[in-house]
Amino acid sequence: MNRNTFRYDFRRRQEDIMKHEWRKAEKELYLPQTSPVLVQIPKQRFFIIQGKGDPNGEDFAKRVETLYSLAYAIRMMPKNGFIPPGYFDYTVYPLEAVWSLTDRGQRMDTLDKNEFLYKLMIRQPDFADNGTILKAFEIAGRKKPSELLNEVMFEEIEQGMSVQILHVGPYDEEPVSFEKISRFLEENGYQRSSKKHREIYLNDFRKTTPARLKTVLRCQIEKISP
């Protein structure tokens, strides 16, 4: 190994040490197995935008794009001349969504995706304070103005005790994994505390074949009283 190669490898190792990679540092939260597992979710900060309708539509895609514009605004702030207090290098967190149905959708015998209600979100690092958030809106609005920015909220959420599973395959086959969750909860004396569930998308559905999609399915739970 020559001196230049050594310096390059050393620099890469230093970057790996300093950069927060959620896939490596937070495996218990984001990389479960294909069998259900209990997990305690701490307080986390999110950019959030709500919507209604078929997730295959244009409106859904625009809302996702709006969230990412803010997430990357924070990630790239040092290159835009602003370093938030406590900033550290990190990988942008994955897209998440909490799903439910309208009252009409819940009364229907078959699933109508136009009746979906969803809350899209992307987690932000702990250093993201109010000043950092305001700066992110400023940067995103300047680079690509959008009325949807006015609908984005910033919230801290604590999901608490949950059960999660890795679903591999098409989204329409998720009921198979939810059935595993149901059996697990019944066998261990738990129940879901809400009909809503959370999905965390580990790869990009636009660039991934349906069979290779990886989605974390997560439900809040509570112990059944004896």
Short description:
The protein is of the alpha+beta class and 226 residues long. It has helices at residues 3-18, 22-25, 27-30, 58-75, 103-107, 130-143, 174-188; strands at residues 37-52, 95-101, 116-124, 153-168, 190-192, 197-201, 214-223.
Cα end-to-end separation: 65 Å
Round the Cα radius of gyration to an integer and report it. 20 Å
Number of strands: 7
How many DSSP H or I helices? Answer: 7
Biggest sheet character: 6 strands, antiparallel, barrel
Order of strands across the main sheet: 1-3-2-6-7-4
| Amount of beta strand | 25-35%
Q: What's the order of the H and E elements?
A: HHHEHEHEHEHEEE
Global structural class: alpha+beta
**Low-confidence sequence ranges:** 1-16
Helix percentage range: 25-40%
Shape: globular
Q: Can you characterise this structure?
A:
With 226 residues, this protein is an alpha+beta fold. It is 34% helix and 29% strand. It is built from 7 helices and 7 strands; from the N terminus they run H-H-H-E-H-E-H-E-H-E-H-E-E-E. The protein has helices spanning 3-18, 22-25, 27-30, 58-75, 103-107, 130-143, 174-188; strands spanning 37-52, 95-101, 116-124, 153-168, 190-192, 197-201, 214-223. The chain has a 6-stranded antiparallel barrel. Helix 4 (58-75) packs across helix 6 (130-143). The longest helix is centred in the N-terminal third of the chain and has 18 residues, at 58-75. The radius of gyration is 20 Å and the shape is globular. The model is unreliable at 1-16 (pLDDT under 50).
